[in-house]
## 1
Amino acid sequence: MSTSVEPTASPDVGDEDTGRLDGASKFRIFSVLAVIVLFTEVAPMQYVMVSAALRQIAPTFPTQGANLNWAIIIFGVIGAASSPLIGKLSDIYGKKRMFLVCGVLFMIGCVICAVTSDWLLFLVGRGLQATAIATAVISYGLIRDLMPRHLVPVGIGVAATGLGVSALAGPLLGGWIVEHNSWRAIFWFLFVFTVVMIPLVIVVVPESKLRVPQRLDVIGAVLLGAGAVLTLVYLDNGQNWGWTEPTSLAYLIGGLALLALFPVVELRVKQPIMDMKLLFTPRVSVVLFIALLASFMIGYQSYAVGYMTQSPPEATVVSEIETATWDQVKAGAMQQAQAQAEAAAKAQLPPGVELPPGSVVVPEEAVLSQLPPNMVGVQMNPGYSYGDGFSLLKFATHIALAQAVIAMIFGLVAGLWIRRSGARAPLILALVIFVGAAVAYAALGHGWVTLTLISAVFGVAFGIYYAATPNLIVEAVPAEQQGVSAGMLGVMQAMGVAIGLAVATAFLHANPVRADVTVTGTPTVTQDIPLLFADRGYEITFWFIAGTSLIALLGAIWMKHGRTPATGGTAY
């Protein structure tokens, strides 16, 4: 168990070498912060836009089927695996330099995705774009090195939740592009956004002068990156591949083996990619553990609320099934009546005389009049109570936008709070809301108004959480370990999202929506309705998420770290 360390008023050793903007004008300081934060917003903005465009992207790659989800999966997998490596490179070679490298790689990925119709090349482009995730990792280090100490907690809070570009442009512009343009326009927009931002970064943001004089631990980087990739691939695809299939388990076993080997190797090399003693110190390991469990809620909430509100209402599905079944009944009755009429006409002809084509026409009205009324019945078993039939744009304006804006505001508020009292208390509040929101999602109604109100409250916790966790890491590690430590935080959050969605997928597929279809005179037929799940599947998952969030909350209550005002990174 670690003990809290009182903050010091004086800067740490070597502070004068970081390029800190002490004495600069407020305009200069906040211009630097704004450009840093705007540059990092390209990652969440593209996530919203590309997720929205999957239905339009699908016809370009018609043979991929369910594999189309890899357009999203690969971004998270590669981003999570590369973040510690890029974070460490920023410690060694310069944070601004790696910031720009990530931007150039992202632009190259945008161009590839915008012009290609080859699936593998498209995935290569998405993998290059995934390096944008690491810009958030680097931004925490840049803010720590450049901002005056008293503004570091606030700056990290703003960086964690953004300035509103992704919150506003992501849902609104993404929805508009999807509805009015080719999906390729999304990648051209992202390309242009990055082209505009890179010169601003070059001109406005100074380079941090802090360097770690060591070589990159290539073996450690490969073990960590490959282990994270294999494990995340299993978690993201286990439901489709089969959790216990030998080929699936090979990914899990291989990934866990590499991750287990990582600390063993790191303890033996002279210049490890990360100090293992620091990693397992409670002030770091507890934060990473909390981030893993809290991310279950973050990943599932975004998926579930969007999916439920954009699903069709039950009445619409019942009507579609009734219509389709009635059309089948009519077609069968017409075929039978036509066959009987033609047979009767042939019987009246002399031997050897063929019946002229089209000479017998059975009136549809006459056939339908013989069918009993209410011949088709559809009963949902089980049914579902959610489903508002929202378009993506309507979902953005009715639900996502309010949550995102509230999160942005409370990210700033939390930064101010953390500067005054430390990050532990805000984190506890965020996790209390996580638990309460999960219980509310599970226990209350599933109409869009209810979901909007719960999501708005969840936005408060979302902003506070994303301000608290990076501040805790900044306060927990020395400056030379900032990049890779923030990278490890990114890995744990990506793992948490993947595990949460994997558990959710299992619960949802175990509770499909079914329809009992009855046609007079025939046995009842039960059929699963694709892409729809019973209320119970969502509710069980939210109860599970409430439990994991409660465990994270207990960890935050127990945590000794973060109980004193944030120092901007001088505590360790």
## 2
Amino acid sequence: MFMADPEAPRTELTLRGIILGVLITLVFTVAQVYLGLKVGLTFATSIPAAVISMALLRAFKTSTIQENNIVQTIASSAGTLSSVIFVLPGLLMIGWWANFPYWQVFGVCAAGGVLGVAYSIPLRRALVTQSDLPYPEGVAAAEVLKVGSSSREGAEEGKAGLFAVTVGAITSALFAALAAAKIFAAEVAGYFKVGAGATGLGASASMALIGAGHIMGITVGIAFVVGLIIAWGIATPILTAMAPWTGDVATHAVTVWRTQVRFIGAGAIGASAIWTLGKLALPVWRGLMAALAASAARKSGEGAIPRVEQDIPINLVGLLVLIVLAPSGWLLYDFLAGGPLAGAAVPLVLAGVAFMVVAGLFAAAVCGYMAGLIGASNSPVSGIAILSILGASAMIGAIGHATMGPEVNTALIAFALYVTTLIMAVAVIANDNLQDLKTGQLVDATPWKQQVALMIGVAAGSAVIPPALELMNRAWGFAGAANLQSVATNPLPAPQATLISTLAKGVIGGHLELHMLGIGIAVGLGLVLIDETLRKLSANKYALPPLGVGLAIYLPSAVTAPVVVGAVGGWLYEKWTSKGPNAEGAERLGVLAASGFIVGESLFNVAYAGLIVATNKDAPLAVPFAPSETVGMIFAALAGIGLLVWHYVWAKGAAARSAKA
């Protein structure tokens, strides 16, 4: 059992911890960039980062649980920051950029990320220390740190955890390599007529998506099933029957889903985010007042603040916000310089900065609350992006339409996307910060040191995201973009960026699909009602996260179906291990193996992108003796099931062995 004096000094923010955190950051960030562009989802990196840190820092006798916590804090913040990829590819899709300029991308990530840290500091008391929010990922990370730091059993489990991540990564990378060689089929799909309409379903052969499903859990898995039923069992058959068609069944079904059904999902996501915002006013206000009171007490000397309650002082936080706003304004001005909106740059920049201040604070509060409720991986960053682009587009369009010229609309859309990227960076870092601060609270960490570590992680992530994005652009490009420099002919879907850029074009161009968005909002409100009723009747035992349902309506079934498989597989695994020895250890090792699946496949594909660019070949690993697609899918299905079962059997056995150590 982990026991410590919370007031004693700690070896915490060390140079070796910072270096290790930054190195882990580089690995996880490039993995997140690929995964987000491929499937529109990212994953929490706190637990695998904590396990890697404990395994490596054990070589130092002076290492502490708080130092390991700093490592995972740095790594998780940088990985989370990669969610800006949900917006930035839109600038290529609309033709504003042909590639990703390093300093403009670095600047928007760094400025938004630091502002996200600053905004979340006064929220800590409201949403962490004075809240009963469960913070599932933050609590899980704290438990991993406690177990790994407290006993010989924990040391054995730490070694097993590192093995689980490593072997999971290797096996999923090999699986992806066989898919790149065309020995495994990448996807299976079937489409068919339903009366006068059409529908179907697809599934990617992806260990990363299965791993993501395991980590998200059965509640989100069920929400995805509901979303699939709404999208492909109800909406697509009805809407395809209403639209005349004569061609291919699959083309018609996918076209209707892409142009109409996805907006139902977008509306549902937006409604969920607005509902969350409405519930936050009181706790946010209390948190701000508590932070101001703590600052006043420090100044007057009326009370010493315990170490475990010491944030960066609120006056320094205010100064930090002001300091960040200056380069943010310069970034926005530089973005417009020399373009068709240069004459309206001053009012547009002022409006952009004001929007960033206000919308950023709301976004930080919403994402922080949702991180506490359902975890950082499931926080509604998609909904925040949707609301932000709608608000930014309306505001910027109203100001900029006075400027005349053939390229004005494109420039307005581009500027709205750039401003939204800042808001996204604020939101996702605030989301991660509060999750990490919950972990810190449970291991007696010093809040201000974690907040400094978060800023270091933001800087590291901001440095690696631009080249990772440009590598993806040069290798595959993005669906809907010109892709003039791309080698491969199968562009990355970048589904979130596609939606965000479509919304911006719709608002500024005046042709937004309001009908489907309205239906989606109605669906979202209905889902909110169902979720709230379930939670109330079951005392929070059962839920149907509206965000999860909305995402499953919006994302391709090829993405959501494997996530459901992973969620169900993880649930069955936990049921199987719950009665065995060291059930909690088995559960943690299962999560770590799933994390390895995500990291391995993503890192392989990043390396594969480099190979595509270097060889200038679309499929440099393809073999001449590849089987047919049907046979390839059978191979992939058998291998995937076999690997999953093997990892689960091993994890249960390793947990039992560590309990006997």
## 3
Amino acid sequence: MKIRSSKYFTRLLMYSLLIGSIPVIIIGVISYYKAYSIVQDKVNYSSMATLQQTQLRVEQILKTIDHSVTQYIGSPLVVNAMSLPYSAAHYQVYNEMYQSMVRSQTFELTINNMTVLNLKGQWGVDNNNIFTFDDVKNLDQLLQYEKLPSFSLWVTDEDKSSPSIHLVKKIPLNSLKADGLAIVSIAESQLARLLAADSRIGSIMVMDKDYRLLSRSDQKVQQSGLEQLVAEMQRRSETEGQFNVELEGDNTSVIMRKSSYNGWIYVSAISIKDITRDSRSIGWVTLIVCLLMVLITGGLALFGSRTFYQPVRKLVAKMGDRFGEPPEEARADEFALIGYRLQSMLQTESRLLDQLTGQVRELKQFFVMKLIRGEEKESQLPVRWKEYGYQANWEWHAILAIQIDSLEKSQYNENDRDLLLFAIANIVGELIPAEERLDPVMLEQSQITVIGGAGATDEEYKNRLFAMAELIQRTVLHYLKLQISIGISRPEKRLIDIAVSAEQALEALRYRIRYGPGSVLFIDDVQPEDVVSRVFPHRAAKELYDAVKLAERTRADELLERCIELIFQEQADWRQYRMALVRLYTMLTELGQYEITPDTRKDTEIELPPDQEKLLFDRLLDLRSQEEIRYWFSDTVIAPVMRRMEQQSKSHTKKISDQLTDLIHRSFDTELTLEACARQLNYHPNYLGPLFSKEKGISFSEYLQNYRLQMAKRWLVETDMKIADIAERLTYTNPQNFIRFFRKMENMTPGQYRELHGHHKI
């Protein structure tokens, strides 16, 4: 047997690879990103320090220029000159101002030009010469500086393509109303030279407070990128910080610082690619190391998987050789096959175990049944007892015999009786510990349970057995809604006497007929000590017989209840009760099989089919309570007998009435009397008269007169007989008597009747 592919081996190998590779990959990725983050943080920190140094250097120079200019314009020479007009007489002062201006500018200060304007005298001095306002081309631009809100301010020239930076100071100092202006110009190239000295990483830019570019160290950032950078800085409105922004498609790390001295913004822009150049080399090294570790892990995984898979492969091969080809659904992988085979073996084992358990249970029940029937040999009893695992320390045993009282008023029918007895056996098995009983069995529609124990007195035996019986009754009533009766045998010492105990328990149950349903019957309590000679109530039975014969239903029911009460009044043997009931049954059924009079017996005798009569008799013997007996006799015996008696009586009455009517029709023209008819029919007139009246609803004499009247009317219409002849034929001695009778009955004389109906003559 072969599996399509070694799926378990493949999964084991893949799992081993994943277990070994995933940590390596995770560690490599984490290491790379950690190194990347550390390098970027270091570069950002270095850039921040470089930018800070650049800012300090630039501001130091700017402050030096500011300080030199302040000293220059604060000198008495300059202050006094601001009050002089432009005149040749003052040339010596102008020249001294020029010389002093030149001396204040050094090479380190990177000053491009310095101009001093006398606003009142309209003249000025710069690095080149002494001039008047008429000689200045950009005078308007210079005069605009007077309107600045501060007496000292750095401004940017916006008109020129190449930006120029100016330091503007009003003369005298600390005065918003200026007499003169000192303007120092610094070329962008000079500032760019300072920035380029510190641009070791990235580009450094300086912007004024309005984000106008003053100078930068290089041209790496194009105009479009610069606009993006300015927009991002304006959006953030931060004085200092670091952020990343995409400039012209290149991800760039930006560091900015805002100067508290003049509001300029110092910016360092470094490409992330430049920052991560070292990180990429670390990444490649990490990747190579990870691949090497993955390869090593793969080799170890392959070796380990083959080693671990070897037992599975051998097991699958042995199963294939032992069981053959598996079904299609079991070929998913090796463990599916192993699981399928194990499940099959477990199911087989479970079936075998169930069969064995069932057979052991059946054998134990068979053993108990043989004990109850007395078929087990006493010599083999200890061996069997030990073989089936029963308690060996029993010193006594007794039997509980359980029967269902009735199913008529329950939710069950007779077909459920065996199943209900099985359910009761399960309940008994749950209520009584296994060490105190044998397996319950069913016998003669009874559930038999053998109970035993050690060390108890006779009274304790009895109390214990009664307590168990009552507990079983309550439990069955609660769960099955059934009423049961329980017979209890005497405790016996020898196990071989279990058959005797079973007979005693069943014997006790037969006395339920006297004590009623739901009884717990101990054999010694119900079995009579003295034999009663007879329990049949002859007098009450005779009265019941007469009441049934006369169809007096109410009285018959009262007498039936009296008879049953008298039968069970005496404590007798259950067989005597049955014999008394059989005798009463025979007496009543014989009454219903014959007609009342002996001469009509052959015509009315009714015999039940043998099968039906046997069923009724068996049912009588199965009755288990006085209530059942009374209902059964009333509905099954007395009611049918009364119906038969009534039917026979009606048939007899109709027959006699028809015979008497026939005599009247044949002998109406004679001196016919009831006595004569009674003699002819062999009945007494007093019996025949009421019987005829009851059947016809009219008396004998009235019926005879009416029939004679009908015959007279017929003769008057159909014949020419004289009225006197008709009267004579109808046994009237005097025609006048006939005429008076006819007139009384028809309200007309016979002659008038003939005249009225004579045309109908045939």
